């Protein structure tokens, strides 16, 4: 039931399928005409009866999508090459997708953002026996084992060892926290070297290791590595229902820029996702 990742046009990348019940334009190739890609995406969504289309696009393409019935849900300034903004624009093709929106969680998020300045940052170094290292392809079995244990469902096939190996080949960088030589938590950076940005994603901590601030420790390490590589814009999609993860990014001075409503199938159901970003 996992969704497919495919190319359209000259190299634009989409993900689509019944799990997330959507089309996601992950990357618009600079040589592709926005109106042509938009038509292909609309046709694909209608053919498969998906209920949402979500597109991450540079600001120059936004007017074409907005004129085509898309609504802005989030925006990241200076996203591509430290200069061009990115827009997350969506079209809801079925009104059911907008039912049962997490109103209470959105209200809680609003209150959290009001008190963001009072959120105390932590360095995530409370445990002297824990070390963090960059993971290699040879660690793929440990990576998939943790993801299987932590996530009931996930928008990408991270339980599949073959998929994890392919992400290594495509430039995704994994970092893991270890205790006693055993991997207990991990996260990754999906790096766009051309655009000089990276998504901080796939945070997972074994249930019996939670409460040790490992997400902050991993995020600290990821940021330092990205800075050394010349990656200047970092962002994440954090579950609206996961207050702890959103709070973690706010602690680390990430800015909230919008919520993607009913966007991602994770933890057993389709949930809304908060967009947070940081320039380093």
UniProtKB/TrEMBL annotation:
Q: Which InterPro entries match?
A: Acyl_CoA_acyltransferase, GNAT_AblB, GNAT_dom
Q: Which domain of life is it from?
A: Bacteria
Residues of the N-acetyltransferase domain: 130-266
The record, for Pfam families, names: Acetyltransf_1
CDD domains noted in UniProt: NAT_SF
State the UniProt keywords alphabetically. Transferase
Q: Name one GO molecular function term.
A: N-acetyltransferase activity
User: By what name is this protein known?
Assistant: Putative beta-lysine N-acetyltransferase
The gene name on file is ablB
